[in-house]
Amino acid sequence: MSTIEKLNDILDISGLPEKIILKEGWDVAFVLSEIDDVKNTGYISSNVIDLLCEYFGTSRVHLCDSEPTSKNNFNFVCFSEEKHSFHKDLIDIFFDETGLWGFVAEFKKDGTFVVGLDQEYVIILSPHERGFITHFGGVNRFEKICDVIFQTGTNSMDREIYHSMFKTIYNK
Fold it and tell me: What spatial distance separates the first Cα and last Cα of the chain, rounded to whole Å?
């Protein structure tokens, strides 16, 4: 099963920002980006990149340039898929080279997904009890990271959309 087929089986985001459907056995978090438009970096916040590096090291990641589509069903499509060893700058380099803002990264170590829909935030999915999110204290840790970024004002996401997504993802 391809990375995109797996993701489409786990997550339905057709109702965002008011609703998501997540397959049982998975944790979900969303974290705002800290984009530096001059350097074209920061798609994934530095806090989360550091956690990804700590947990995954240089393990294998499948990376797709992608976007969601609403053709019949709301599914992700993949334009191309590449296999990489993960490193701190991989996502930013990927965007610099492709010029695209949508991506899906599947970490083979535990099946965690990091999904970028636009440059304002990423969605993280990991298997419950044995995945990336659980390893770092559960969704509460990522909820706090997201809220700190929002409070600092380093992200341009609309306040109303942010609060709606925050409520949807973190059940607040």
Answer: 34
Neighbours of 170 (CB within 10 A): 16
Residue 82 to residue 66: CA distance in whole angstroms: 12
User: Which tokens belong to 48?
Assistant: 């989360």
How confident is the model over 18-46, as a mean pLDDT?
A: 84
| Crossing angle (nearest 10°) for helices 159-170 and 139-152 | 170
* pTM (two decimals): 0.88
Render pLDDT for 75-92 as a digit per residue (tens, 0 to 9).
566 666 778 899 988 888
**3-state class (DSSP) for residue 15:** coil
Task: Identify whether 82 is part of a domain.
Answer: yes
8 A C-beta contact, residue 154 and residue 50: no
Domain that residue 41 falls in: 3-16+26-170
Alpha-carbon distance of 73 to 75, in angstroms, equals 6
